[in-house]
Amino acid sequence: MLEEIRPPRRAVVVGAGLGALATVVAACSTSGTTSEATSKADSSTPAAAGTSGAPGSGALAKTADVPVGSGVIVDEVVITQPTAGVFEGFSSVCSHAGCKVSEITDGKIICPCHGSEFNLDGTVAKGPAKTSLETKAVSVQGDSIVAG
């Protein structure tokens, strides 16, 4: 009679596996949504408003939108201004595990995934990342910062 109440072992194992898979998928979906929300929030900053220049202009941001001693994240590029008039570009992909950096706070570029921090010149300030952010070429043309 006890066997009638117990579900077959295969059903329990399959059910547990599906439950674990659902948890992983949900966690990944939540993580992606958070990153996308952060990216969308970053895209709505004044720097992103400067990107809507003439089609094909390649403008990433206006120089006025990148604070001295800080920076902005525009799409796949982090633009910093460590000192007045000096603009640097980096990939927004963290060198540790490939997550996107999410913010620039107190002179540090922050990756939300594992807590890596980078200086405004792209070098590692705090691990677990061991290598600098990849450099992206940017230049100033008039009052705009462009790729290249």
Provide the succession of SSEs.
HHHEEEEEEEEEE
The CATH top-level class label of the largest domain: Mainly Beta
User: What share of residues are in beta strands?
Assistant: 25-35%
Average pLDDT metric: 74
Q: Mind telling me which CATH architecture of the largest domain this is?
A: 3-layer Sandwich
CATH superfamily of the largest domain: Rieske [2Fe-2S] iron-sulphur domain
For the largest beta-sheet, the strand count, sense and barrel status come to: 4 strands, antiparallel
Multimeric state of these chains? Answer: single chain
Number of strands: 10
| Helical proportion, percent range | 25-40%
Q: Strand pairing plus helix content: what structural class?
A: alpha+beta
Count of spatially separate domains: 2
Uncertain segments are 23-56
* Through-space gap between termini: 75 Å
**What is the count of helical runs?**
3
GO molecular function, one term: oxidoreductase activity, acting on paired donors, with incorporation or reduction of molecular oxygen
Protein name: Cytochrome bc1 complex Rieske iron-sulfur subunit
Biased composition (Low complexity): 43-59
Cofactor: [2Fe-2S] cluster
